[in-house]
Every structure is written in C-alpha cells, then in structure tokens.
Amino acid sequence: MEDLIKLLGEFWSNTGFALGDYRYLMMIIVGLIFIYLGIAKHYEPLLLVPIGFGILIGNIPVFKGLGLAIYENNSVLHYLYFGVTSGIYPPLIFLGIGAMTDFSTMLARPMLMLLGAAAQMGVFITFLGALALGFAPNEAASIGIIGGADGPTAIFLSAKLAPNLIGPIAIAAYSYMALVPVIQPPIMRLLTTREERLIQMEEPREVSQKEKIIFPIVGFLLCCFLAPAALPLLGLLFFGNLLKECGVTERLAQTARTSVIDTVTILLGITVGASTQADVFLTSKSIFIFVLGAVSFGIATASGVIFAKIMNLFLTIKINPLLGAAGVSAVPDSARVVQVVGQEEDPTNFLLMHAMAPNVSGVIGSAVAAGVLWSFMGKYI
To answer: Structurally, how many domains does the chain consist of?
Structure first.
C-alpha cells in the first residue's frame, strides 16, 4: 500500500497541476482570450488562433531537461522556434505579402506614400520613450518598431537586436494589429472634423502593366541602397510582387501567397505563442513593452492623420485625412478601418482603394525603419 501511495505521489509530482503556479494560469487565460477574439470577433483569426493556441502549448508546465519546453535546446519546439530567433520566418511572410499586394493605387498617386512614411513617427518617438524608461538602445529599437503595426518586421528586428524580448514584442505587435478596428477609430475621429471625413477622393489614374513590373525592381534598388539592412525583408517583398506582376510566373506567385505564407504563419504563430512561457515571459519588461506598444501604435495612427491635414494646407484638391491612419502597415485592416469610419459619415464615400496606397507604403516604410534602426543599433548587441 505504501508503495502505491508513493507511486501515486510521484505521478502527481510529475503532472502540470503540481508543477504549475498562478503565472501559468494567467498566461493560459490570455491564450484563451486570443482564441476567443480570433474565432468570435474575427480579429485577425489567421494570427490570433495560432498564437493563442501556442500560448496554451507554451504554458503547460513540464520538467526541465526532458526536451519539451521551447527554451530547451533539444526540444522540437526549440527547433521550430529557430525560424523566429534566426529571422527566417518574417522574410518568407514578406514574400507572400509581396505576391498578394497590388501596388497600383500607390503608383497612381505616389503622393500618398508620404502618409506611410509619416506613420513611422510612432516608431522613432517610442524608441526615444523606451530609452527614457531605461531600456538598452538595442531593446528600445525593437520595442519602437511595434508602432509600425507590422508583426513580421517587429519579430525580425527583435531577433537581430533583442532576442530576449522576442516573446513580449511579438505578442504586443500582433495584439495591436488585431485590435486595429478598436484602437484606430477613436483617434481618427478625435483628430478630424466631420467636414474632413466627408471629403471624397477623385478616381486614380490607371496604372499600366509595364509600370507594375518595373516598380518592384526600382523600388527594391532604391529602398535597399537607402537602408541595406532591410534587404532580407524588402528583397523578398519586392521579389514576391515581381512574381505576381510579371505575368510569366503565376504558379510561383500562387505558391508564395498560399502554401508558403500559410505554412510559415502557422509555424510563426505557434512558436511565438509558445515563447510566452510564464516563468520567462511575465516580467516587468513585458508590461512596459505592452504599454509602450500601445503608445507607439497610437502615435503612428495620429502622425499619419495629422500629416494628411498638413498636406491639405498646400493642396488644391484635398485628400481625406482619414487616409493617414492607413499609413501603419496592418494590411489590409487599417485600410478597411478608414473605409468604415468614412462611410459612417457618408455611405457613398468609398475610401478603401485610396487607403491601400498609404497602407502598402507603410509596409515598405516599416521595413526601411527597421533597417535603419538595425544599422545603427547593431553595435549595442
């Protein structure tokens, strides 16, 4: 009988119930919230559902040394996580994004690219704020990029500059990306008048196929000569777009925008979620990162809207300032939010097509910003 009791005691001590504490329960609740938001509210389900389930996987308490946890060198999860820590997954996602993206609205009105650039103010202002809070320069740079609302770029830069912060930075970036429909509208309404929200945009010119083919080549050369450190991201982004537009590689483009990006999204979501292991993730730094991420995202949205209003001071034909909110690179959610807020005032006002111009330029802008920060902060690693 004593042996049976001892055996049962050993069995109990090996279970997650005995090994865990309140921190794991807290993170499991967060994972369930992510899954709920993805399924019930349709907030970026392709991201939140894998990440949410990954959080559940990462917060099952296990014995150290058995090769189960994501931070153990010989575990399966650790091998999969290598794609995050080495920066492999984000460029592959950019390849798929490039193969899905139509840059014609941006080429039709290049002036709207400035709104994508203006939204990057959130990145650099938050970088300064993180420095003021005592983060090291390399960590501050990684936190600042959350303001670009670009999860893959945030992960890529964190992997290079602050690998110890990948978990909280990735979760913060994807959380705010998913909450675009909640966070952006109040800021947009606060900074614009009803008359400004009613402005209708003129039809853009038609962009030729030749322009669409030339753009990814010229865009790649210009951006990467400007910020060589952005090469892994922008190289695959523009290559994917060339596959889409050149007309002779449709099969490759189809693979990039379906099989490749879907597979990588699953692996990225699961491993990023699993990296939130409670005993590693729940720190004061994580809390500061979430607060700074929210500030960064708000500043980025406001910067785009304000810059659009400034542009209107010099334009004969005004642009709708709501378009500035699409300068963050949450494609295409922030463009959809512009459409929704604009149609609240006038159901006949169709802004989605125009909002895609600053939206896709924001993707390029956030990658360039990450390249600039990496080139300056790499010495602090």
So the answer is: 1
Measured CA to CA in angstroms, residue 274 lies from 28, 48, 56, 160, 249 at distances of 11, 13, 7, 19, 36
For residue 233, tell me if it sits in a domain. yes
Say if residue 128 is exposed, middle or buried (CB neighbours under 10 Å; 0-12, 13-18, 19+): exposed
| C-alpha distance across the termini of the chain, in Å | 58
Answer yes or no: is 251 within a domain.
Answer: yes
Contact 326, 338 (CB under 8 A): yes
Of the chain, the percentage scoring pLDDT greater than 70 comes to: 96
Which distant-in-sequence residues (6+ apart) come within 8 Å of 30 by Cβ? 55, 276
259 secondary structure, DSSP code: I
Mean pLDDT of 326-337: 86
pLDDT per residue over 8-21, tens digit each? 767 666 677 767 78
Q: Rounded to two decimals, what is the model's pTM?
A: 0.90
Place of tokens 């945030």: 154
What is the chain's alpha carbon radius of gyration, rounded to the nearest angstrom?
22
- Is position 11 within any domain? no
- What does 125-138 look like in DSSP terms, one character per residue? HHHHHHHHTT--HH
- Measured from the Cβ of residue 149, the count of other Cβ atoms closer than 10 Å reads 33
The reply to whether 202 falls in a domain is: yes
Q: What is the dihedral of CA 364, 319, 110, 311, to 10 degrees?
A: -80
**Residue 330 CA to chain centroid, in angstroms?**
6
Burial 153-171, CB ≥16 within 10 A → b, else e: bbbbbbbbbbbebbbbbbb
Give 269-301 pLDDT, tens digit per residue: 999 999 998 888 888 888 888 888 888 888 999
53 lies in which domain range?
16-380
C-beta neighbour count of 33 within 10 angstroms: 14
Give residue 380's pLDDT. 63
Question: What's the pLDDT at 375?
Answer: 87
**Residue 2 — very low, low, confident or very high, per pLDDT cuts 50/70/90?**
low
pLDDT at position 3 over 70: no
